[in-house]
Amino acid sequence: MPLATLVARADARLIADPGNHADLVVTGATLRAQHVLPGDLFAALPGARAHGADFADQAIAAGAAAVLTDEAGAARPALASSGVPILVHPDPRAVLGSMAAWIYGEPSLKLSVLGVTGTSGKTTTAYLIDAALRAAGRTTGLIGTVETRIAGERLPSGFTTPEAPDLQALFAVMAEQGVTHVTMEVSSHALALGRVNGTRFAAGGFTNLSQDHLDFHHDMEQYFAAKALLFDGRSTTEVVVVDNAWGQALVTPHTVTVSIEPGTDATWQATDLLSTPTGEQTFVLHGPGGRSAAAKIPLPGTFNVANATLAAAILDTAGVSIEDTVAGLADVQVPGRMERVYLGQSFTAVVDYAHKPAAVAQGLDALRARADGKVITVLGCGGDRDTGKRPMMGEAAVRRSEVLIVTDDNPRSEDPAAIRAAMLAGARSVGPAAGGEIIEIGDRRAAIIRAVELAEPGDVVLIAGKGHESGQEIAGIVHPFSDRDELAAAIRNRLEVTV
Fold first, then answer.
1. How many whole angstroms separate alpha carbon 204 and alpha carbon 235?
2. Per-residue confidence (pLDDT) for residue 356, from 0 to 100
3. Of the options 3.40.50.1820, 3.30.450.20, 2.110.10.10, 3.40.1390.10, the CATH number for the domain spanning 3-103
4. Is 262 exposed, middle or buried, given 0-12, 13-18 or 19+ CB atoms closer than 10 A?
5. DSSP string covering 297-357, please?
6. Which of 19, 165, 239, 259 pairs with 250 at a CA distance of 20 to 30 A?
7. Exposure pattern of 234-254 as b/e (b: 16+ CB <10 Å)?
């Protein structure tokens, strides 16, 4: 995009020598100086620890064509004497998404972008939607916590929702690769920080809301306000699960509503829920116009039926038939979400990403229904995150487990023992009459091994918190660690010892 057009559309103040930059064209965008390519717009944003303008010399040396920043950034000596055009905006982060979209040709308008937000269920719902889209013969893209996929090619994910310039570039590549539909998780951070500004959603979906991320949002009202931004007009169709008060607060006369509660008049409903001994669930989907179909998902928990019904409603807005939807739902695989690890052992072993109180409670309630024996839970809390949920998670887990093993989970810069102490306080507040046995084992590998050692036929072992993750961050260093691999190794070792 010509620089002059970009400046005019962004309503930014330009600091530049008109004679030298009259014909300048901007060909890309990034907010990381080390990623700048020749012709890029470098977004020098204010941050909590540093200002992006302090790295402008590195960006300019790499070929940045122009710099977007605020007044404080423009006053930095490195920029003031740089000689490159400077676009000054009072809130550069807010406008960056739209600017990146313009530079990359507004790619979300060339795709059917289906966004999913909420506290729990974003990843599962996104995978359910993607599976049905592929069953319907669509060429798909997927953006989320676990991975990014472009027409079947897998890429690792950093954030749940990428930064604005990366997101728009990703959309542009997807359009080039023939992708027609993109399913993406939309985090509250992404909405609050403008990462999805400039993105047009064909549909926006809402799963639920419970306590999480209060280290960033401060309170539940602010957290909800961030989620609600997906429904501020940027989504052509709004699809909302209304089985909680937060969802009900999003409803307008045009909202497509979703419910699994009996007796509701939601647009999309699920009835006749039935769990099988293998953990699958069957139910009947009901849509508008009297449409209905028998459906099955290979996932336990009524909350996953709600996720599947939300997916069906979103897929309907994308023109996918209920038959293709049902076929896709039946074959979905969601990494690290109620994922069973089976090597022939006599007990059920499951890995799940649950890392908030409501998700822990829901997951254990679902597994309790499958347990013939006791429930053994391994759970930790991440460091440098919402501290208020730690005792709540301990309490939720011990109420639903015969044995709770409190361990570490990405302590990051915090003292792991202090994190465990907060969880233990919540667990011990329940009392022996209402809660199970509590064991503290800081080493996560040892905790998983102990859980497997304790398991007897008919028991359920849940390793919660990390799900699909392949590393554990301790004191700034990410060590290779997979709950799935560690659980499988512990089971394998026990089977060998037994034989």
1. 5
2. 87
3. 3.40.1390.10
4. exposed
5. ES--SHHHHHHHHHHHHHHHHTT--HHHHHHHHHT---TTSSEE--SS-SSEEEEE---SH
6. 165
7. bbebbbbbbbbebbeebbeee
Q: How many CB atoms lie within 10 A of CB 214?
A: 16
pTM of the model: 0.88
> What is the number of alpha carbons within 13 Å of residue 364 lying toward its C-beta?
29
Domain with CATH 3.90.190.20 in the chain: 339-498
Cα separation, 496 vs 499, in Å, equals 5
Mean pLDDT, residues 1-14 = 93
What residues does CATH 3.40.1190.10 cover in the chain? 107-330
- Residue-by-residue DSSP string for 96-138: HHHHHHHHTT-GGGGSEEEEEESSSSHHHHHHHHHHHHHHTT-
Output the CATH code of domain 107-330.
3.40.1190.10
Under 8 Å CB-to-CB from 144, ≥6 apart: which residues? 122, 123, 126, 157, 160, 183, 184, 185
The tokens describing 306, both together, are 């709600």
Helix or strand (DSSP H, E) at 479: strand 477-480
For the stretch 81-126, pLDDT in tens is: 788 999 999 999 999 999 999 999 999 999 999 999 998 999 999 9
Name the residue with tokens 């989907």: 285
Tokens of 440: 């503290």
Q: What's the pLDDT tens digit per position in 384-402? A: 988 999 999 999 999 999 9
How far apart (Å, rounded) are the C-alpha atoms in residues 19 and 8? 17
pLDDT in tens, 52-78: 999 999 999 999 999 999 999 999 887
Q: Name the segment(s) of the chain with CATH classification 3.40.1390.10.
A: 3-103
CATH of domain 339-498: 3.90.190.20
Contacts of 342 (CB under 8 A, 6+ apart): 349
